[in-house]
Amino acid sequence: MAHASKRKTYLKVFVALFVLTGLELAVVKLAIGRGAIITALVGLALAKAMAVALWYMHLWDETKYLRWMVGGTLLSFPALYALALIFEGAGRAVFLR
Length: 97
What we know:
α1 runs antiparallel to α2 and α2 (34-56) packs antiparallel against α3. Helices cover 86% and strands 0% of the residues. The protein is mainly alpha-helical.
């Protein structure tokens, strides 16, 4: 019985990932600003990454501390990456004059 319930959960997660991928494709086709598209796509990608980490990597069964640690890393990555790109761009502007 336990095996069947896991199979049902994995199927639900698969469907959720499928729907999120469809939403990503729909967002690209919307007539909205570029910034809104990028924000929506990053948010959807983070949601998909979180779903994969929680269920397929079995983090859902781990301690609350470990889940928060992994989730915090996923949520802070875009900001850290943007900061790295800003510093790289500033460095290029200074050194390529």
